TrEMBL record, chains A, B, C, D, E, F:
SUPFAM superfamilies: LmbE-like. Keywords: Zinc. GO terms for molecular function: hydrolase activity, acting on carbon-nitrogen (but not peptide) bonds, in linear amides. This is PIG-L family deacetylase. GO terms for biological process: glycoside metabolic process.
């Protein structure tokens, strides 16, 4: 049984849900394994660190994805060998064959650093897709995933980040839905998430799907030590 | 009293409303004169030519803008000397100092032709802004107009084009509102229309506004011979 | 049984083989239906029209794809309503859900015209990928298909176009292999064809593959009236 | 009385004058408040620190703008939280609604760092425009300000930086005038400064101008503690 | 004795002088053969056709270059097989190894058409450089030629086109000098012309120069039948 | 006797050979002086530091170029004042008038840092060309050097880096040859190396070549203290 192993990487709790939460839900629905790597604890945003950790765990549970923490510090990420090593280890551990990460042009220094470190760590990977964040500055997507069946799930997962939804001007579920419709129209579907590929090898016969697949037990959000 | 003279150019009835209807309403609210130049009669879309003409007149009335027809034929526009002359005349007649037109990268041949002809006709103008159409293929906007107070008006004007709203997959008021919210978030306002400038001279002290200005009579949609 | 329906479009006989012949072979291997639409008869290149027609049929047979002719004239293609109609009909007839066509920046006027007409005809399609030609002028690919198992087949199909391989400086199997290795290294596979997406909706669970699939009879190259 | 509040940010003394000195003069002429934030003392260029400070004060006086220092060190600026905080404070203190800063592609590391930090600090602002420096490497302007009435003032202000004009190959008033004419021709005016917008919301009815406005006293260059 | 053969192509009389007149003078000074191909007679600009022909001849004489006419009609050039054939013949006749032509993004339809036709005609050439025109809309040059010793000659040649200098807002020697200084500063020389390469093979050991070279007789402007 | 002085800069041993080894051989064949500046010792790749040093010396000897070390540490290069100073000194010492360096968009942090530092250090130079590395992420070359006569030499020099050729997926002579053929076809020659210019002033009459030139003694690889 061959499944895709998906690794989504974000600088802060809620970044991944904002950027590609619907796509991760679609991957799970297709039977793929999905791990979310949150590089920092989001120490600088609104909300306590413990609270944000709990929110991220709830969101991952909601999306039925594994959760993994990078243990770096919010607003102090650099694309150095240490950050690259954290991401390389996640790629190795998950044997990722699809990687999602922030878009390169972004006004948040942590986002830029995580993206640069990911491009380095993923230098041998065949599929690296950039998602959009509210702070992304340039973004001309050409690749889309249809999330019409998963938008609700995305909003639900995002809503788990209550400290952000309530206090950050950047996190607004109404905008998330509007952007999904906007990109959906571009993609000729109803709701879509949009991506710019760093490198995307389209696998024409990707995954011999087992009929039993939908029966595998959902795995719980887990925080590696 | 100096007012801005605005000229919005579109290939077909409904193109202008879709692309910059809210901005035109904002110009009218600021006291500017606005003319819409519809280059063809939209002969090839759904709806009769007479019907589409009436729809366009209703929409222009709704936006309180002058309407002007280019009398070219739908799906057969080329950026030749004839088309350029039609647009040059509109620029001269209106003494336009702001021009709106389709974005250059568009899958519809008429849109591309109208844009090319406009760039030629407007070669001496200081302000040419490209708006987005559902068929636009590449578009990275950097200039926005806040249409939060005018989105309803835009949707109303668009709804006048009943033949399109009901029959064309490309004309969907729900998507129009979603895109306005999407671009609004990018612009840090609520609802926005987005533009790419061909050339935009920002006039720091543009229009000595008369206090009486809001009292000028609305002018009716008019079809020049 | 759901299969993908693939439509590859090229201006002249041999364009499709050069640009995406390996990918078409990979689609056939994955059980997809593939149609090649050759828009002109290649009247202006070296070789007789009848000869080129026979070469194209041999190449399509080699790739096990359907062949369809557009009946336009070499070096005189324009992106007008007539050309668009030819392509729209092919899209409708094949119910294409993946479309391949030339890249937009190309020094050959026919290539540019076919691409523009395709973008118009495919305005409702979710997957349009641009392939590279020897005359392509700008091309920064981000999407790839692994053709390591199909490069020989590509070269074989191309070699059917003997009149071109022997007489055109632009058609050189050695360069074709070199480019496939170059793009393969970029894609982190051995041999690849490279694409720029106009619009690509990645279908995470595309095709419930039947185990019998490899047993379907190869269909012969056919020239519709 | 609503006036625009303008904040111009540069890495070193003379950067702002070179990039947008004419535009700042035009803002002052339109009655807007203007603050210049010089992030470093220019310790590494020719001239003593005290001398450069005096030159900057003279230039600001010449342009009738407030001057504010960032107190970072020349050639050692990074886009970290500290630099961002300095700029955030200036934005807050001035309630800036227009921000000018270096273009992102620049061979000077300080320029790149100041731009990155500004994009982060100004993440909620509606108007951020990038100006060109002699070390800018890529720059395709689309937004211009007509400085025909202010070029002399720009050159005067620049000339206050005698240590640079006399000793740096990068600071040459003759080139400044030539570039203003070059960009003026692009903008269809006589002399212009050119900008690339990070984000520019065009305010169609920006500033209810009071007739008394030209009577407000010019405010002196001031160095905050 | 091997000399470079240079072919400069422009849509109208004066286009070549505006775009690369200084560079042609530099080529002549280096001993290269230079032919100017003017594709149309400039029938639509100010000035009679005969007058413009005489002006072009005077300018070519001034630059000591051969002059060749394309005999197409102003404002009606298309990039079709006929235009391509005119340019192919010029390339063949001159055995050109360097070709100069308009930049592709230009608001004048003739300029775009001449550029497209040239890229097609020059498909086997190793050196095709695009020059800038006043109507060029996008242009980010990376290649320059130092014309510090030839700016006067460029202005002289341009001044031969009296009908344009006196009557066209687009032809202004003052702007020509300003742009040369602007691009010179970018290139780290005094005056430069700027180019974007379509394709440029840098010949490290290009031309075994004979010492007698400066003694070859200047050849007169000639109009082929 | 005027010769060009060429400076090629790379982050690690083997980077220069991969990116522009054939071009350096062509420069030597044209009689130019060539220095290779290797910024780090390649401490993090496969192979001992002493071994890599010896490999680099052998490769430089093979290409008949001078070798110079930057003494920075692999995977820890930043574009700070120290790195800039190392490169400025190399430029000054060699009086470089042509500089080669990595392309700016690259997934390796050292490559990006070396490029940024070089653009700063070379701010007064007229010719800076970017070469491609296996980790380069975006690259649209427009400038080429014909290395048909030097490909073997390039492969030989690269093969001196045995520790890399044998152990790094990124260093594969077969790919090097394929890319040279791919870029050669783009350049209309047999084998080429490809470049994107940061700034390239084309010297039309560059180097009065002395007939004796081929007789100058090859200079040995030398490691400055």
């Amino acid at each position: 049984m061959m499944l895709r192993s998906v690794l989504a990487i974000g600088a802060h709790p809620d970044d991944i849900e904002l950027g590609c939460g619907g796509t991760l839900a679609a991957h799970r629905a297709a039977g793929d394994a999905v791990t979310m790597l949150v590089v920092t604890g989001g120490q600088n945003g609104p909300g306590s660190t413990a609270g944000r950790r709990a929110e991220a765990e709830a969101a991952a549970r909601n999306l039925d994805c594994l959760l993994r923490w990078g243990h770096l510090v919010d607003c102090a990420v650099t694309a150095d060998a240490g950050t690259i090593a954290v991401i390389e280890k996640a790629i190795r551990d998950t044997e990722a064959d699809v990687i999602y990460v922030h878009a390169p042009d972004d006004s948040h220094q942590d986002h830029r650093a995580v993206t640069a470190a990911t491009l380095s760590a993923a230098r041998h990977n065949r599929r690296v897709l950039h998602y959009r964040s509210p702070s992304t500055t340039r973004f001309e997507p050409t690749v889309y995933v249809d999330i019409s069946a998963h938008l609700d799930r995305k909003i639900d997962a995002l809503s788990c980040h209550r400290s952000q939804v309530e206090n950050s001007a950047m996190v607004d579920p109404e905008v998330v839905a509007a952007s999904a419709r906007h990109f959906g129209a571009q993609a000729r579907v109803r709701y879509a998430e949009a991506f710019t590929p760093a490198r995307f090898v389209w696998d024409l016969a990707p995954v011999p799907q087992m009929p039993l697949l939908t029966g595998i037990p959902a795995y719980p959000a887990r925080v590696p030590a």
